Amino acid sequence: MVNIISGFFWLFISVSMEVIATLMLPQTNTFKNTLMTVLCLICYATSFFALSMLMGWISPVVAYAVWSGMGIVMISLLSTTFYKLRSSALEKVGICCIVAGLIVIAF
Fold it and tell me: Which residue in 9, 43, 66, 103 is a FRET match for 52, CA 20 to 30 A apart?
């Protein structure tokens, strides 16, 4: 039970930091805003550290697939909220395919 909780902890940290860093990228102003750039890099470094810790609990293939899939889905959803970006119907179908793939990998 502790192994599962540890794995989910590292997955949560890794995906959260990657999503935060990616959402911060526009605020770096092409890396001219030093503070936002440093914060963005710290978030990415934390994400990769947590991803490496996650790979101690599950296989690297599954860890990377889940990390990247969840990141894509969350960034797509949060970009709509924070940056008012709209996706096309085809993009929504693609995101649904990613979610379906994550469900298949999980089970």
Answer: 103
